[in-house]
Amino acid sequence: PFLINVLKSQIWVDGKCTTTFIESTPELFHIVPGKDRATKIAEFIGNKIVNESKGNKPEFDKIVPPSFGMNEDGSTIEVNGAKNAFLKMGATEFTQSLMKEKRLFVTDTTMRDAHQSLMATRLRTNDLIVAAPATNMAMEKAFSVEAWGGATFDVAYRFLKESPWIRLQQLSKAMPNTLIQMLLRASNAVGYANYPDNVVQEFIKISAERGVDVFRIFDSLNWVENMKMPIEESLKTGKIVEGAICYTGDILNPNETKYTLEYYVRKAKELEALGCHIFAIKDMAGLLKPYAAKELFTALKSELSIPLHLHTHDTTGNGVSTVLMAAEAGVNIADLAIQSMSSLTSQPSMNAVAEALKGTERDTGLDTDQLTELSRYYDGVRQIFTGFESEMKTPNTEIYKYEIPGGQYSNLLAQVKAMGSADNFEEIKQLYKQANDLLGNIIKVTPSSKVVGDMAIFMSKNGLNQDNILTEGKDLSYPDSVVDYFMGNIGKPEGGFPEELQNIVLKGKKPIEGRAGALLAPADLKAIEKHLLETHTMKRINPRNIISYAMYPKVYDDYCYHWEYYTDVSKLTSDVYFFGLAKGEETSIEIGEGKNILIKYMDMSDPDSEGFRSLTFEINGAVREVKVLDQN
Ligand code: 3PY
Ligand code: ZN
Q: Is the pLDDT of residue 395 over 50?
């Protein structure tokens, strides 16, 4: 049936297939073929062999899983971690108790921000779950493991074809003594746009039920109004709620008038007053310099009565120093990543900070030999993902000038290259800075950073700069994200919108009053349930299916089509998921409780007159042939 669908497809008929034909034509999958599971998986692997590695799968060194943390039967060895204390004391008493300890508590970001920042969020549940029992043990003295939220939700469905909810459930089970932390983009939840309140509320509720213990909540413009509802909803779940304010500018710069020490202390107090158990500084671009960190946390310490948490990135190379200075000033918790997943656009190295603090009163309590083993494991895993890594090879202090968050830096570079003008990157960086000023000198983090990036690219394409935009740019129509920003749809920037440019961009449209989430009609969750039942093969729809569709309708539909066509591909190891198999190589996949199939790839034919190749596999010893369209 799939072949019939391909042949019937208008794109195919018109001969307009590109290499993304299959991915971008979900209707191909509308008919659910009556093939057995093993054949479907073989077809998935076949597609990777033909269209990804093109018959040349790279060779990888053997990946050695950590040797500790697991019982013989594969279950996790239980320890007495932060989760145990939290369950005993509850959120308020537990978080207050952190302040009585001298120890610098650690949040291990390896399973979320580290791979989001270094390799486009591509680590799969399979990669993480192997490290989970060891992480549970190594993090016994830590505060939490950030393992969910941010971009991981979207990417799991969109590119990894696996369920983020199953990831959360499995990690939570494999790390029973560990607090699982997530990053929530306030009214944007784990998306890029404001969602109606009922979507955000439902999302928070089911995330808590499914295994999130700590909600870190931020708004991309530090607009506290947008954070109130998600904070209140998270508090209702009984879990730990951390309000985060994004750091930009430089508090030590005598010319700084907006993002001053007073600004951060004021915002922190607002979040404390909303009932947050912890306050975090979220330094997403790595702009917080070491001595600024000392000054900032000294002030916050004297003004707040809740624990303080530092999140930074090592983009400039100053990350470890910033963490140590914050530790000097009394920060309670610091985000760090396992060494082989640290530095550059990721978090500073946990191994380095743990070593640096040994023998001091702020010793992290972490066992550095265990950290070394975890580092070795991720080092092995990382070889599979080199294709997703950015070109950034060294730290870069230019970030202080342009304030481009790490992830966006590499994205922008890729965008500029795709425009065919890599030499334009210098110009784009200058324009990014100008665009930021024109938009009102705003916080730049998902999704506000995209507004600035889109504006910079738009200025470059249209020959605009800060001196001519109000005249030459008067009659142009601006990118959607920029219009949305000036409409007030992502929130309000500190100091308000620059009115002259706002008028030019909106061309008579009236910006919204108040919060976008409150104005949006509630999502019709019943209608979504009906759509899913009618469109897909699921017999029952659960609240997770509904909320995933509510946030990402197309991505979620495509994920379901993929599942219906290929079944569950999440159990494949990542080398097979991304590259298929080499000739003669075999892989074993669990297709049910204790049930495995062995798939060996034998050979492939040349394409036939319609472009299909026949691939021969041995499935549990029996020869099976599958046809794959060669899209090269
Ligand atoms: C996210 O929103 O995914 C981030 O990591 C922002 O820094
Ligand atoms: Zn971050």
A: yes
Q: How far apart are the CA of 198 and the centre of ligand 1, in A?
A: 22
pTM: 0.94
Round to whole Å and give the CA distance between 399 and 421. Answer: 21
Centre of ligand 2 to C-alpha 115, Å, is: 10
ipTM associated with this complex: 0.98
Mean pLDDT of 101-128: 97
pLDDT score of 13 more than 60: no
Residue nearest (by alpha carbon) to ligand 1 atom 1:
150
Q: Which atom of ligand 1 is nearest to the CA of 405?
A: 7
Cβ–Cβ contacts within 10 Å for residue 79, how many?
Answer: 17
Q: Which of 342, 345, 84, 346 is nearest to 354 (CA)?
A: 342
Give residue 409 CA to ligand 1 midpoint distance, Å: 13
Phi, psi of 508 (to 5 degrees): 95, -15
Instruction: Report pLDDT digits (tens) over 232-291.
Output: 999 999 999 999 999 999 999 999 999 999 999 999 999 999 999 999 999 999 999 999
- Tell which atom from ligand 1 comes closest to the C-alpha of 151: 3
Q: How far apart are CA 586 and CA 41, in angstroms?
A: 13
39 lines ligand 1 (CB under 6 A): no
CB 432 within 8 A of CB 404: yes
Q: What is the DSSP letter of 279?
A: E
Confidence of residue 410 (pLDDT cuts 50, 70, 90): confident
Judge residue 580's burial from the number of C-beta atoms within 10 Å of its C-beta, 0-12 exposed, 13-18 middle, 19 or more buried: buried
Backbone angles phi, psi at 108, to 5 degrees: -90, 115
Q: With b meaning 16 or more CB within 10 Å and e meaning fewer, what string describes 21-36?
A: bbeebbebbeeebebe
1: confidence class by pLDDT, cuts 50, 70, 90: very low
Interval 182-209 mean pLDDT: 97
Residue bearing tokens 């920042």: 117
Please check the confidence at residue 212 and state whether its pLDDT lies above 80. Answer: yes
Q: Which ligand is nearest to the CA of 218?
A: 1
Is any ligand 1 atom within 6 A of the Cβ of residue 374?
A: no
The contacts of residue 27 (CB under 8 Å, 6+ apart) are: 5, 9
